[in-house]
Prior knowledge:
Layout lengths: L2 E2 L2 H21 L5 E7 L3 H17 L2 E7 L5 H12 L6 E4 L9 H7 L11 H9 L7 H12 L8 E5 L6 H10 L3 E5 L6 H5 L4 E4 L17 E4 L3 E2 L5 E2 L4 H4 L5 E2 L7 H20 L1
Parallel strand pairs: 1-11, 2-3, 2-4, 5-6, 5-7, 7-8, 8-11
Antiparallel strand pairs: 9-10
Helix pairs in contact: 1-10, 2-10, 6-7, 6-10
Amino acid sequence: MTQIIDGKKISxxxxxxxxxxxxxxxxxxxxxxxxxxxxxxxxxxxxxxxNKKHACAYVGIKSLAxxxxxxxxxxxxxxxxxxxxxxxxxxxxLVQLPLPAHMDEDAVxxxxxxxxxxxxxxxxxxxxxxxxxxGFISCTPFGIIQLLKRSGIEMDGKHCVIMGRSNIxxxxxxxxxxxxxxxxxxxxxxxxxxxELTRQADILVAAIGKTKFVTEEYVKEGAVVxxxxxxxDENGKLCGDVDFEQVAEKTSAITPVPGGVGPxxxxxxxxxxxxxxxxxNS
Length: 282
């Protein structure tokens, strides 16, 4: 019988664990603070920022919301980041992406202090992950590892195939799987034999942003399938990169969309905020 991996339940458990630890700090008069910067009023970004505020409120982390107008210059944004970098009361800094077209996302991410980079996007964080040193880990792949571990799914010695090579999911996911002693293959838009490779996967991670692209033909019998995609089907219904109805019966375990990977991203952001506080105060 297929195991449906419940990301909502597992993320709730992680947030409850964080809440207990934040409450313990509060009893000592200590406060964890996350600053979230949003430039412009992109509707999707507004939803994500609101969800992060709700998560902060739930676990007891102070949320400092900075909503800047679309016409904010890059230099003004960098000045604000520098100000937050220097504020000892701010433990984590998150700039909601995407940014307006007139801004250089790489320059903005690089301006955030690596000590406060709770998104795990800074080059220092990426490099630390690559060579196995301590640093912040990108929240979505970090959440996937927690999903697998807390669902009792073994990664050691397994063949993990990752569909997608983005800096946010694909590449860090590969590094994390290597840490867990998995054998890793990455396939992408220039891979000629994608289906042949995905059918070899014990664990298949789909992160390509294509609605229901992964059908049963891409999946080995008994594989674990992790769906990172967030798309809309022809009826406007939320769905992933995996055709869940087709694929689920063939798998040993699978994440649904919604309710799989999505809730884990914000849970791990809360984890990174608490970890940032600890590192800054150790």
